[in-house]
Amino acid sequence: MDIFDVVETTWPAAATHVAGPWKIRDGQGGGKRVSSVEWITDHFDADDLDQAEDAMRALGQDALFMIRPEHGVLDAALAARGYEIIDPVNIYQARATDIATERPPRVSMFCVWPRLAIQENIWTQGGIGPKRWDVMDRAIGPKTTIVGRWDDQPAATAYVALCGATSMLHALEVLPHQRQKGVARNVMRQAAFWTLEQGGTDIAVVCVKTNTGANALYSSLGMELISSYHYRIKRDRT
What we know:
Layout: H1 3-10, E1 15-19, E2 22-26, E3 37-39, H2 49-58, E4 63-67, H3 72-80, E5 84-95, H4 96-99, E6 109-112, H5 117-125, H6 130-138, E7 143-150, E8 153-163, E9 166-174, H7 183-197, E10 202-208, H8 212-220, E11 224-234
Parallel strand pairs: 9-10
Antiparallel strand pairs: 1-2, 2-3, 4-11, 5-10, 5-11, 6-7, 7-8, 8-9
């Protein structure tokens, strides 16, 4: 399965529709991934950009394009229109068995659904609010959240969902005073075990390139950098 299908299934927009060569996402405030427009045909015509911009403006959203590695022509056309790159993202993937090598310490990591109030508190501190919780609620199929405790105190939260044989973990947040203790690594292990228990074989994550700590974590777990994408944005100033 295409990894971008996994991204979209596990972190879905409120609604999507096709307008010409574009997939238009209505994110309802849930962030860039669910509020972007994507080119979905083989032929590109720069004149079609107006259609995409109008569609996003009609939704009250910024003109925001998601650019895959193979979309170089679109990327250049947007740059020529004054669009700037924002939030380049890496996509990592690994066999779940390669991460599920050791269970987290007892009573440290728990899979729960629906999410708990303490998780919402942790996410809120990390800037992940109700509109993004709505994204989690919209996902169809096997899904869970992970709540982590460390030193007998709340420590972390994450959300993970399965698409086909691949799970994707999103919204990993560790409280500042609980970092550098191996908490995030154990969240990933818990997610890998959950994936296997659901019949999945692989686990994936997306991570902005500027998050050096998270990129280092996923690399240290042996996850392979399999793809990337970025956005181009031109905010509506009218």
